[in-house]
Amino acid sequence: xxxxxxxxxxxxxxxxxxxxxxxxxxxxxxxxxxxxxxxxxxxxxxxxxxxxxxxxxxxxxxxxxxxxxxxxxxxxxxxxxxxxxxxxxxxxxxxxxxxxxxxxxxxxxxxxxxxxxxxxxxxxxxxxxxxxxxxxxxxxxxxxxxxxxxxxxxxxxxxxxxxxxxxxxxxxxxxxxxxxxxxxxxxxxxxxxxxxxxxxxxxxxxxxxxxxxxxxxxxxxxxxxxxxxxxxxxxxxxxxxxxxxxxxxxxxxxxxxxxxxxxxxxxxxxxxxxxxxxxxxxxxxxxxxxxxxxxxxxxxxxxxxxxxxxxxxxxxxxxxxxxxxxxxxxxxxxxxxxxxxxxxxxxxxxxxxxxxxxxxxxxxxxxxxxxxxxxxxxxxxxxxxxxxxxxxxxxxxxxxxxxxxxxxxxxxxxxxxxxxxxxxxxxxxxxxxxxxxxxxxxxxxxxxxxxxxxxxxxxxxxxxxxxxxxxxxxxxxxxxxxxxxxxxxxxxxxxxxxxxxxxxxxxxxxxxxxxxxxxxxxxxxxxxxxxxxxxxxxxxxxxxxxxxxxxxxxxxxxxxxxxxxxxxxxxxxxxxxxxxxxxxxxxxxxxxxxxxxxxxxxxxxxxxxxxxxxxxxxxxxxxxxxxxxxxxxxxxxxxxxxxxxxxxxxxxxxxxxxxxxxxxxxxxxxxxxxxxxxxxxxxxxxxxxxxxxxxxxxxxxxxxxxxxxxxxxxxxxxxxxxxxxxxxxxxxxxxxxxxxxxxxxxxxxxxxxxxxxxxxxxxxxxxxxxxxxxxxxxxxxxxxxxxxxxxxxxxxxxxxxxxxx
Amino acid sequence: xxxxxxxxxxxxxxxxxxxxxxxxxxxxxxxxxxxxxxxxxxxxxxxxxxxxxxxxxxxxxxxxxxxxxxxxxxxxxxxxxxxxxxxxxxxxxxxxxxxxxxxxxxxxxxxxxxxxxxxxxxxxxxxxxxxxxxxxxxxxxxxxxxxxxxxxxxxxxxxxxxxxxxxxxxxxxxxxxxxxxxxxxxxxxxxxxxxxxxxxxxxxxxxxxxxxxxxxxxxxxxxxxxxxx
Lengths: 805, 229
Fold this sequence. Notes:
Oligomer: heterodimer
Number of strands of chain A: 23
Helix content of chain A: 40-55%
CATH superfamily of chain B: DhaL domain
CATH topology of chain B: Serine Threonine Protein Phosphatase 5, Tetratricopeptide repeat
Distance between the termini of chain A: 62 Å
Shape of chain B: globular
CATH architecture of the largest domain in chain A: Alpha-Beta Barrel
Distance between the termini of chain B: 30 Å
Number of domains of chain B: 1
CATH topology of the largest domain in chain A: TIM Barrel
Structural class of chain A: alpha/beta
Helix content of chain B: 55-70%
Strand content of chain B: under 5%
Radius of gyration of chain A: 29 Å
Order of helices and strands of chain B: EHHHHHEHHHH
Largest sheet of chain A: 8 strands, parallel, barrel
Radius of gyration of chain B: 16 Å
CATH architecture of chain B: Alpha Horseshoe
Strand order of the largest sheet of chain A: 16-17-18-19-20-21-22-23
CATH class of the largest domain in chain A: Alpha Beta
């Protein structure tokens, strides 16, 4: 953990500040030392005391020194000169004493790196600054446009964009927000574009600067340096961008060529159209000169209300959704947009709604020319425009979608604001005509776990209530699906209850378990007949977190689940993240092939402490409850990794340890793996992706990524054969287990536990109960001998049709 | 002409190198400085009370008393060691901003002096210059920020010019003492831009900077010890 040294003139002040900070970290002990006061307890500072304090809290993670004023700074600088250990990274924080200390302590106990802890402390005043200046004033900043010609830079600097998506809307808004309180005129240019004012998010987005390009920053004014530093910090930090992984299919995909899945999940349900677009305001109306001033005021009021509305929405959200709404709020008050509109009212007599319409069109036209990611931000602009116009013309805004039944939402495109209104309980899926895999809507849909597809041409022409099938993984979209197609969906309507345990008609037991992400999924799992949990994804604990959750937090979350399954099995999987699923506190660089990069268990190479902490938390939670806890690691490729993981679990005090089989390497080495582990669980989605060398995220490759592929069956068979020699359990927790026919094949291959989303349990359990073990074996053999996925489907269905009652 | 931050005399002077100042004379200098701050303790504290936190006198007295105790208890054998002991003692006993500032001043003097038992004029000037560079590095003062730098810089400037003009050690020290006093007096008309006095802004006008006052005493002590050299 990063050590923190608190330097103050006054021991009383330091102790009070430290106590305040400690109150934020109940149950955790930061490495913190006070160096306050001088000899004889006089008010003052002593460089040698600071040296001692630094040594006490030092570790390879480094030390941050937080100081109050005057001699505290000089003494601390002096102390740095006295430190002999040049390898020790000690930094002096520029942050404010109290706020900076709090921020640093919280970040440090959260496992933050020295860079992160330093950053938090240095920026700890931002919250106060923004709170005190957070009025919805809109200033048409004359300086911003004049500055194009008159800015004489006092400071210039440059920085390379490191975040994957480059300078898009959210980063642009972050820059605008960061320098909002600086008394400085700031301009930014990119490699291929001239300088634009840094207080205009749309102008910044218009730079279309991408990852790897350089931003050239110029600033003048008293806070010029501060503004430049703030921007550089943001850029270097990748704008804190962690949720938004660029999808690999992005580059190759042309959004006009067809439907693509952007958020996985296969559902059937009735269509509900979001709304019809607002009509274009009349261009003929010309306002009287005397009315124009009032019209400007109307527009400003509407803009302020819309900006406030976005702000309000952001306040009740978390993580990426929150940031998107904040960014949208900032964009709403963009001087580039508002100024153009106001000028059009004053000079041309446009109505406010027509003025904002045209101003938006101008910006959108610019975005469209840039193409790519920018064109996906057009939705945001239109959403802002539409909300403003609705306010101006008193049209109803779709603030909430009210429907008594589950529905599949269809829209031309969803604005982030629309998406966050959705309740995943009612909204089965999202279908849009426009938008790409990195659009805000897609990101939000994924974060809400709602299946989503885009590129459905004329989707908005579908009548409300029409039944459609949506597969957010493959991009499959069927209007009025037939019964067979409906049958391919895991959950259509409430099915008669399945009463476990899972078994064939002749009594061969196969555990039917649920995949869950948190305790919230438990009631469904139990109601629908799960015997236990076959995959407890622990990511939920970590997602949307800036820092690693504490052991205590983790214990609490795990116990909540274990408690529900006393005497039953819960297979808990350690953190599965990586550059495809990045987390702020995992130091992961951009990788060309995230799916083949540092992910799953591999993240523990760089951050072993996160895994160790998690295993400790799991062990503590397991000890406190009575569930039968099995623990497994994701993304294992070698026997050594498995052995290493098992050792770590033993050290933590866990008794049953296994690994996921997601790589062909692991499947091929299964017989050796079983010498190390107590069980395995096959992740069929990844195993298919790696076996077929077909990116899961690519809609073009969905045909290859079919869980019915015979090659995949053979991989699974290999694993089962390795297990049967040693009589060790083999589970499947991928999509394959939730397809009832495929589940039968898996059982026939020798799989001993099937884990799936709770919704699939009744269908799988019922089918299994109607077949004998021999039926399953026959189905498996038929699948193994097929030449294609399609053939396997048919032949299995055929072989079972005669025996299914 | 306001004193510049860097004096730049290091490679230029052609002063006599025959005259030297010994370890014992330097100890005497420090002893005299200690006496002067003790005698002027209330004066320094009163200056500080006007624009700071009223502890400069007591801080300096505590620091220099500790310095003299340390030197007496274990007499250093080289000038480098002497200044190192002085610097470290001040750092850990003064408490206020003067601790790291004077501490750095003497530590840098020590490093530059090295393991010798006497310094000639050129060497003393280099050591003093190094000390001032240390003060600049530590406190980042500019001329007229109303800090001890406003006494220290003119003092060293005068000392260098005087030595460079083939004046005696005693004359050079006298010139430094006078320049420091002039620098101290000039701080009265300045607005403080460093340290706690800077929070007072214009209200700091009309008061001497306490640090410049103690620095003037440092050169008064040097002049006294070198008189007749």
